[in-house]
Amino acid sequence: MPTSALLVEIVIVGFSFFLSLLPFVVIIFKIEPNMVLTFYSNIPLQYQIAAAYAAGVIWNRVCDQLFSKFDHQITLSLFRSKKLFQAIRIQVIMEGESIRDYMGNFRSLIRVTRSAAVLLLIYTFATPVYLFDSSVPQNMVLSGKIAIILLELILTALSVYAWFRLVRGYVAAIKDAHDVVVKKKRK
What we know:
By secondary structure, this protein is mainly α. The chain has one domain (3-186). It has six helices and no strands. The protein has helices at 3-29, 33-41, 45-76, 82-93, 97-131, 142-186. It is elongated, with a radius of gyration of 20 Å. The two termini are 30 Å apart.
């Protein structure tokens, strides 16, 4: 996987971290979301990207830890142990550049989807607090508030499902590629 693609992926994850802070700032400090976004928009882009990269590295590890138990269970569904999976993954990746790029793309999608799922989950829990807070103008009808919350629940569920399918596909691709490598060596 080219370094620039990894850089962009980590920056996207970092921006999702900053977006996940927005509900906390709005709810705890009672600051309007537009004020926070205006503040961020006045920061030069190169500083935003540098901050997003630094935050993205850390946020990626946090999201990785949040999902690690589930990753482990999915891996054990096709392999006897995590150690065996890692050994086979290394063997498959060392087989060729195209396989390495293919697996790298899978990992990129998993990282971005994982951070999106955490971001949406935070918004799903923060939105009711924000919408039903007494300091928020109450001119929105109840059905509109419920529709927003349901939409966030659906988006969160879709994001988690996409993550699950990506991890399952990644593990299955490693297994299939290993089978091909083993057959190729037997010939």
